[in-house]
Amino acid sequence: MAAVDQRGRVADRHVTAALEWNAGTRLSIREHDGLLVVAADPHGLFQPTKQGYLRLPADARRRAGISSGDRVLLAAHLDRRTVTVFPPVALDNLVLPVLPGGEDV
Q1: Of 52, 58, 75, 95, which has the maximum CB count within 10 A?
Q2: What whole-number distance in Å separates Cα of residue 101 and Cα of residue 83?
Q3: HEC assignment per residue over 55-85
Q4: Which UniProt keywords apply (predicted)?
Q5: pTM (2 d.p.)
């Protein structure tokens, strides 16, 4: 879990380090079913910051419903060299149905 700042920077470098993504790594970012999928892509338009942070562009944040200060879950798939970003609403949709009392909690 990591917070997203007002410029879209995700405050976690562990995932980018595990994937060996640096400031020169080209990335594509797409929305899929309310999640953001970030992938290493030689034709990608995005890159991690010089400090190794993932930065989510404003249009991608809007499509996924991510606001400044939100905490997101980052799930890396090392073999595929991808990161899936789970915004708060996606986490709610995953967790609420399995909690005792469901949405009444």
Answers
A1: 52
A2: 32
A3: ECCHHHHHHHCCCCCCEEEEEEECCCCEEEE
A4: DNA-binding
A5: 0.87
List phi, psi (to 5°) of 60. Answer: -65, -40
Q: How many angstroms separate the CA atoms of 87 and 10, rounded? A: 12
Among the listed residues 90, 97, 98, the one whose alpha carbon sits nearest the alpha carbon of residue 32: 90
The residue among 60, 48, 65, 64 whose CA lies nearest residue 9 is 48
Whether 102 shows a pLDDT value over 70: the answer reads: no
Q: How far is CA 35 from CA 16, 17, 105, in A?
A: 18, 21, 24
Domain map (residue ranges) of the chain: 2-104
- Give CA–CA dist 42/20, Å, rounded: 14
